């Protein structure tokens, strides 16, 4: 039996309607921005394998670091014990966050969000402000697939579970794109909505969670940094905790190391995963401002955070993260990020000019997106041409690893244009 049939016999794939989806493509090898199937057919990974890969597949530096660490220590319980890879990683990360952050480890983006929400909620309990029970976020947001993350998300993926989730409140998101002339009006309306909400619920709100600048799974949609800054300025008058979910936007995706740098606001809590290990191993970090952490210190265990995962701060994952962070900060990588953005902007303009059905073009850092009536046939044609794209509904987007060759990215755009 070939790999496809063996797969179908036992495996249930994520976010897949198995009754109608084509069989999955077995990949046997990855190198740089390319993946290869059994016959050696090449796929250009234009979505960084679900947004996790930063520096290319099987990167030798990260690979070697993991191997070296695996010979020393693969895992140790993280309660009552610690290890250097975790310590070094947090020392490095702390230089990006001026709030005197404490870092709490978990395994994936959803758990990073669960941890953030639980900390925010328990913070007020520990402070004796038990009337704070409301959660606030943005319409269209996606924060993961676990229950807390689903409750504060509104991407349309989780409607079946709505009744089981705790209630949350949503501010309209003033999406914008290249050439959008209505943005100010949309922002004004959203802020008015927020003001009305705060008047009633500001003093009973636990926290506000948002994907800064870019909503990913909701359709790669952008909104302005100045709007987000305005929102948070208002929230802070009510001492509402700000959580930035930078699971996707972190580590250079939006052109700066973290998206909050462009907002000019340091969040009280930040969620990181996806690119954290450069796409090698599942790992997540929730960064928490010292002032919040302090509310958990007491002689009573009841005030401690009762949360932890079996693989908390896995040493191999931490090592991969350290290595990936080194690569990210190299001038060559930072230049590539700028080059990708330049190619994106040029090609979005060309797409809009040549393909009348292309609308709502938008771009931030290494991410470009546009709308087009997507069909199954179109998706199959992309794959035939060796382009790994995975449109979200009618939103087609490119989110390549930073190592992608300029020529390869330009060729991908030419192929996409021809296919459309
Ligand atoms: C992907 C994603 C998550 C969830 O991460 P998982 O690792 O898939 O659980 C949460 N927030 C954002 C913004 C994401 O893009």
Description of the molecule:
This protein is α/β, with parallel strands linked by helices. Helix content is 38%, strand content 16%. It contains 14 helices and 16 strands. A hairpin with a 2-residue loop joins β13 and β14 (367-371). α3 (60-72) packs antiparallel against α11, α4 packs parallel to α11 (315-329) and α7 packs parallel to α8 (225-236). The chain is globular. The chain binds pyridoxal-5'-phosphate. Pyridoxal-5'-phosphate binds at residues 108-110, 113, 142-144, 211, 216-217, 245, 247-248, 273. Residues 108-110, 113, 142-144, 211, 216-217, 245, 247-248, 273 line the site of pyridoxal-5'-phosphate (PLP).
How would you summarize the topology of this molecule?
Elements: H1 3-10, E1 27-31, E2 34-37, E3 42-45, H2 48-51, H3 60-72, H4 84-94, E4 102-106, H5 109-127, E5 134-138, H6 147-151, E6 169-171, H7 183-201, E7 205-210, E8 214-215, E9 221-222, H8 225-236, E10 241-245, H9 260-263, E11 269-272, E12 284-288, H10 290-293, H11 315-329, H12 331-354, E13 359-364, E14 367-371, H13 376-384, E15 387-388, E16 395-398, H14 406-419
Parallel strand pairs: 3-15, 5-6, 5-7, 7-10, 10-11
Antiparallel strand pairs: 1-2, 2-3, 4-12, 8-9, 11-12, 13-14, 14-16
Helix pairs in contact: 3-11, 4-11, 7-8, 12-14
The structure holds pyridoxal-5'-phosphate (PLP).
Strand content: 15-25%
The biggest beta sheet reads: 7 strands, mixed
Helical amount: 25-40%
Strand order of the largest sheet: 4-12-11-10-7-5-6
What's the rounded overall pLDDT mean? 97
Q: Which structural category do the helix and sheet elements fall into?
A: alpha/beta
Determine the number of helices (DSSP H or I, runs of at least 4 residues): 14
Strand tally is 16
- Rounded to an integer in angstroms, the radius of gyration calculated over CA atoms is 22 Å
């Amino acid at each position: 039996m070939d790999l496809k049939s063996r797969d179908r016999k036992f495996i249930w794939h994520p976010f897949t309607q198995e009754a109608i989806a084509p069989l999955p493509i077995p990949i046997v090898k990855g190198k740089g921005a390319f993946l290869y199937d059994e016959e050696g057919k090449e796929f250009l990974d234009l979505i960084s394998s679900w947004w996790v890969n930063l520096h290319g597949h099987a990167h030798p530096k990260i690979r070697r670091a993991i191997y070296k660490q695996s010979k020393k220590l693969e895992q140790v319980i993280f309660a009552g014990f610690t290890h250097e890879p975790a310590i070094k990683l947090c020392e490095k990360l702390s230089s990006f966050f001026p709030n005197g952050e404490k870092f709490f480890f978990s395994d994936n983006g959803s758990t990073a969000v669960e941890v953030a929400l639980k900390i925010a909620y328990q913070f007020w309990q520990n402070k004796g402000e038990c009337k704070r029970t409301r959660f606030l976020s943005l319409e269209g947001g996606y924060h993961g697939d676990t229950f807390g993350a689903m409750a504060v998300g509104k991407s349309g993926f989780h409607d079946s579970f709505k009744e089981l989730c705790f209630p949350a409140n949503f501010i309209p998101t003033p999406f914008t794109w290249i050439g959008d002339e209505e943005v100010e009006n949309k922002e004004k309306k959203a802020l008015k909505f927020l003001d009305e909400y705060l008047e009633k619920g500001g003093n009973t709100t636990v926290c506000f969670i948002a994907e800064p600048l870019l909503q990913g799974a909701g359709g790669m949609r952008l909104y302005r940094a100045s709007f987000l800054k305005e929102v948070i300025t208002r929230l802070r008058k009510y001492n509402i905790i700000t959580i930035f979910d930078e699971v996707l936007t972190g580590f250079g995706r939006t052109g700066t190391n973290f998206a909050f740098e462009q907002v000019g606001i340091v969040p009280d809590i930040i969620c990181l995963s996806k690119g954290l290990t450069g796409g090698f191993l599942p790992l997540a970090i929730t960064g928490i401002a010292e002032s919040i952490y302090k509310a958990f210190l007491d002689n009573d265990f009841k005030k401690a955070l009762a949360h932890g995962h079996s693989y908390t701060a896995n040493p191999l994952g931490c090592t991969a993260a350290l290595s990936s962070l080194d690569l990210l900060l190299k001038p060559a990588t930072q230049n590539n990020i700028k080059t990708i953005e330049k190619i994106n902007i040029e090609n979005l303009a060309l797409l809009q000019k040549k393909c009348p059905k292309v609308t709502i073009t938008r771009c931030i850092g290494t991410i470009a997106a546009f709308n087009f009536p997507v069909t199954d046939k179109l998706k199959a044609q992309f794959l035939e041409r060796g382009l790994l794209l995975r449109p979200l509904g009618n939103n087609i987007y490119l989110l390549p690893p930073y190592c992608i060759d300029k020529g390869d990215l330009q060729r991908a755009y030419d192929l996409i244009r021809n296919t459309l």
